[in-house]
């Protein structure tokens, strides 16, 4: 059984997913906001999606964390590195639960997860896949210094934009500010 690490940022805690996250997860995936990431879906489908997040850690040795507000302990999203079957290459992905968008949480947690992917996992590059109509997610990718690279046709999600993150070498040479 893999031990999922916990990471802290100034406002957030990235921790293992727990059963207590299921109600918020289900509410998000029942809402129209989930349309860019495979929803809306039923409670049963949400359960399977949440279990997939945990199972990814076991199968790949890494995955997305539950993100909670450190101050309140509220579950705010699922963010981190992952590479499920059917993806073109390893990705940094983010899904914010209802009511947590617009606070900079996705960027803050995704930057911490990118640092983990590069420094701990040894990734040399990363992408983020963004639905073309998902302007909020595209803005997160841009704030992280990612650049648009093209379109990937996913068998279930359809056309997705590929956003390439600066490599560890690029970040070391000029920092993210050089790409933002």
TrEMBL record:
Organism: Falsiruegeria mediterranea M17
Every N-acetyltransferase domain range: 12-167
Domain of life: Bacteria
One MF term in the entry's GO annotations: acyltransferase activity, transferring groups other than amino-acyl groups
Name by which UniProt lists this protein: N-acetyltransferase domain-containing protein
InterPro entries registered for this protein in UniProt: Acyl_CoA_acyltransferase, GNAT_dom, N-acetyltransferase
Native organism taxonomy: Bacteria, Pseudomonadati, Pseudomonadota, Alphaproteobacteria, Rhodobacterales
SUPFAM superfamilies from the UniProt entry: Acyl-CoA N-acyltransferases (Nat)
């Amino acid at each position: 059984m893999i031990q999922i690490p916990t990471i802290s940022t100034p406002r957030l805690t990235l921790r293992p997913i727990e059963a207590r996250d299921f109600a918020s997860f289900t509410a998000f995936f029942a809402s129209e906001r989930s349309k860019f990431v495979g929803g809306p879906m039923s409670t049963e489908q949400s359960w399977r999606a949440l279990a997939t997040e945990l199972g990814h850690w076991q199968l790949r040795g890494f995955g997305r964390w539950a993100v909670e507000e450190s101050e309140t302990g509220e579950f705010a999203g699922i963010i981190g590195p992952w590479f499920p079957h059917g993806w073109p290459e390893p990705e940094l992905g983010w899904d914010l639960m209802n009511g947590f968008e617009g606070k900079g949480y996705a960027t803050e947690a995704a930057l911490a997860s990118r640092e983990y992917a590069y420094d701990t996992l040894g990734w040399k590059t990363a992408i983020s896949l963004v639905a073309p109509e998902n302007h909020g997610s595209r803005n997160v990718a841009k704030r992280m210094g990612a650049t648009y690279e093209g379109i990937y046709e996913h068998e279930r999600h359809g056309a997705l934009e590929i956003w390439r993150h600066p490599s560890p070498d690029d970040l070391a040479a000029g920092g993210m500010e050089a790409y933002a």
